[in-house]
User: Which sequence fits this backbone?
């Protein structure tokens, strides 16, 4: 796996406490983006994050005796109560999380940060916390965008962030079976680097890859940019080791089994509410010998959608496949500007503030990528090209695919640059069956534009399809708009409208971001009242004291 | 889907009450099999099943008031308490089930058989049963081989078989998404016939296909002969409708989701203990335009195993792939005798009674099958052939593949013919990762031969690999031996030894037969004590009165 993220290019990867990536990788908002936003009526209003020492934190409430007991388990050097550690473990990386942090609000900070060394120390911490009724927030990369790191805070109960960074080993590599044991705290790049020493790759590359961890991928059912080829993370998991308040749990004796329900699937997506995933046994593949990335233009989003359906239903999926709608194509997210070069897609800019693509007929940008053994990759690329060309797609210049790949981890850096200019940017996603996708797309788009437009925030709503399945696909929306006087409130209203639209159109409330606290209002619609009852019963069984992430996933 | 089962060729499909398939499809044991068994020291001892009117049944215990209440729900014509209905819903189709039935023992017969018309009637029956504490045994095809139809019978509680035969409709077909709603009571052939009217196919073809049902496939995590191409049944399920004692439950809003744990995976494999699956939304594909079946000979089982691993790890799986070990190859199960022709594999017959293949060097039989669009199928067949030929495989005559396909549903008929001769035949299966497969194979084989050999039953233990995954595969064992004085006890001992060997070698206790009552002793080892606790908690939530299949899956 060639690392292409900006953080990789700059040495230190320690992220800023108020945003994404290291400060050295931050760049000002490109002029062409600035100009485009101005033309759309989205005003810039430079706003810097407050200095670290001005962040407001609640007093740390961990009793001394509890702190000492924790130190006995993990060592005193691995229990932190200083402000920066607490701030760095406060909330996740949703835009509203960042807006609050940038404004100096760390009201949701844990009282302490604990870094266990291994599975047994996690078990011991959970036992202690159950006894002392300390709330435990499992912490991997801290990249949740759904409030997954901000559990309910029952009165008088201290909150500890359980940072799994030290569980970062590559365990047994079984080359014959194509599996590897990966520590839950391994971040994406480190996991790939360790596997690469064995000539292997996981191939799981979500947007959050630079910071998100193996345990987090599993706990949230993450899906990567290359999911069409490598599979979702849940499909890569063959075994799990979990520490729960009531003991250890290991699952996964075979690639598949009929020994009752697949309980791995109950832990995948459990979001730290049932236990702490400490190790994943994952399917791994040989490092790809050949990688091809291509850019296409298709006549319109509807045509492109039908083409992707043809590929997916015919078992002809590329490894990466991403179709931008007209607005995202014009907005340039589909093809980031090249360093020193002109912006790839500034468009003619006749946007109204609610639809950037109005009146444009430039088609839609499609990226296809292929990774694997050389002959297979080249043949697959040729087969897909045949379908695309027959369906009216036009091949873009040879740089279009590599351009996308180079910028594939760029979005959260761009968001920081937008927030620096007082411009709001956030994403949400869903998935549905092919037959429901057009109405799902239209419904969510209308809900977002309607809600944010009514607030006079000049929203630009962009979307792409990725994560192809035989029976459907995901829709990933990016929203850029003015912040107005209450960006958090405005976004909450827009997100509610979007969530209602998703449910009305028959989609899933989240394809790969998880439930957290933000999607809880729609969980009943998603899994039914009985589903919620079942999750509660499982929670009571595994976490009888209710110490793990209260209010996350299960109310 | 071309039907090739013997039952299909003979008109009526109503099976005999004591075995498999209609009487018209039964044939005497072929002379060559008879001769082979005699040479192996497995004595024939003709034994006919007792006449139906000599079967011993416990008195029906359903109170009149309960019977009337059930009749009010489903109509009086759909509540049966006569002997034949009770006998036909007594136990499943394991060999020990058949031995008991053939001997006239229907001690496990339900007190009544109830046939609801639809989901709402199932719900109403479960509500009534919960109130009256009537045990309910969901009944699809009645083909369980793991005691899945013989729940615990708490004293004084009547037992009702809930036969889903009337839930046999094909519902909405979504051609664009490639999904179809299938009634739980649809048998394999009928489901395929209904889908074929739309040019579609499910492609799920387990050994039990002629009688097993859609609901049963889901409830037991069935896997078909073509699973390497079409996927296991659990992979084909995109949605489920379930009637539970506490209400309706519908799941499946998208091909994939991150909205918490995948609760479909909790119902798949739930074996009627959590609720009654009344409808499955399944992935369907276009009817295959081209079908190719080929036979191969590979030098030995170990070489063949490595070749299959190469194919599976390289994403080069045929649709069907089945590698017989040396004994199964010689035993002829890999290639059934052609009608009117010589037996395909009578071998030189130097078997010792514990190893039919001793001293034979004829290699191992491998069947590959391909189904789909013509060019893709032909290219895949050529690619696989390249790998096989390079690995030392030799192509058999053109009839070898079609011979296997013609006989693909033949095994349970052959078992009836063996039982008619007083010869025991049974199967068991497991799965493991590629690295564990050789030890798993050796361990289970030694356990079966050791246990049955010690009882002087001259066991022949055959095995094949099928159901390929990137990380591993399943092992399917067929045992033929003398019955001796206590075949049920001897098999229980052998099965226990095999189960212990599976656990010791790190395999799963069942790859596609489910848990039932027979695999319960190993469930703790498989899913851990916490796994069992979680299943119990789910059971209490969905079936608080404990009416559904008590003792099945969850003790």
Assistant:
């Amino acid at each position: 796996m060639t690392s292409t993220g900006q953080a990789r290019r700059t040495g230190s990867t320690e992220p800023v406490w108020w945003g994404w990536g290291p400060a050295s990788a931050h760049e000002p908002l490109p002029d062409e983006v600035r100009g485009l936003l101005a033309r759309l009526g989205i005003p810039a209003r430079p706003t810097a994050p407050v200095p670290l020492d001005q962040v407001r934190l609640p007093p740390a409430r961990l009793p001394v005796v509890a702190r000492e007991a924790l130190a006995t388990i993990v060592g005193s050097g691995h229990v932190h109560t200083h402000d920066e550690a607490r701030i760095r473990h406060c909330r996740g990386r949703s835009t509203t999380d960042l807006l609050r942090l940038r404004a100096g609000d760390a009201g949701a900070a844990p009282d302490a940060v604990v870094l266990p060394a291994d599975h047994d120390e996690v078990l011991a911490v959970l036992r202690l916390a159950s006894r002392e009724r300390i709330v435990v927030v499992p912490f991997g990369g801290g990249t949740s965008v759904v409030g997954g790191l901000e559990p309910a805070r029952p009165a008088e109960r201290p909150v500890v962030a359980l940072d799994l960074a030290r569980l970062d080993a590559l365990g047994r590599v079984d080359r014959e079976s194509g599996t590897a044991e990966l520590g839950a705290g391994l971040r994406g790049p480190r996991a790939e680097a360790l596997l690469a020493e064995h000539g292997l790759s996981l191939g799981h590359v979500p947007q959050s890859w630079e910071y998100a961890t193996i345990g987090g991928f599993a706990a949230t059912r993450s899906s990567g940019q290359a999911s069409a080829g490598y599979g979702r993370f849940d499909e890569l998991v063959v075994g799990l080791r979990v520490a729960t308040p009531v003991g250890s749990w290991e699952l996964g004796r075979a690639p598949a089994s009929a020994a009752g329900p697949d309980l791995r699937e109950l832990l995948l997506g459990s979001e730290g509410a049932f236990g702490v995933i400490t190790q994943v046994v994952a399917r791994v593949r040989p490092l790809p010998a050949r990688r091809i990335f291509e850019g296409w233009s298709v006549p319109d989003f509807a045509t492109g959608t039908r083409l992707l359906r043809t590929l997916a239903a015919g078992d002809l999926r590329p490894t990466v496949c991403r179709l931008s709608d007209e607005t995202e194509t014009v907005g340039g997210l589909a093809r980031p500007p090249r360093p020193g070069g002109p912006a790839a897609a500034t468009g003619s800019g006749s946007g109204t503030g609610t639809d950037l693509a109005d009146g444009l007929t430039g088609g839609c940008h499609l990226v296809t990528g292929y990774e694997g053994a050389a002959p297979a990759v080249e043949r697959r690329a040729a087969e897909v090209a045949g379908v695309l060309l027959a369906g009216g797609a036009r091949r873009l210049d040879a740089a279009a695919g590599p351009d996308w790949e180079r910028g594939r981890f760029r979005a959260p850096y761009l968001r920081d640059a937008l927030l620096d200019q007082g411009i709001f940017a956030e994403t949400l996603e869903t998935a549905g069956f092919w037959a429901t996708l057009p109405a799902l797309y239209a419904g969510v788009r209308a809900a977002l534009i309607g809600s944010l437009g009514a607030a006079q925030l000049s929203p630009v709503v962009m979307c792409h399809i990725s994560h192809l399945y035989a029976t459907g696909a995901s829709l990933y929306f990016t929203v850029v708009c003015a912040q107005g006087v209450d960006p958090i409130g405005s976004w909450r209203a827009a997100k509610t409208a979007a969530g209602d639209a998703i449910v009305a159109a028959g989609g899933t409330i989240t394809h790969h971001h998880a439930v957290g606290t933000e999607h809880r209002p729609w969980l009943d619609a998603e899994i039914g009242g009985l589903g919620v009852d079942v999750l509660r019963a499982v929670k009571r069984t595994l976490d009888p004291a209710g110490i793990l992430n209260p209010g996350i996933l299960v109310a």
Q: What stands out?
A: Chain B has a mean pLDDT of 93. DSSP finds 18 helices and 18 strands in chain B.
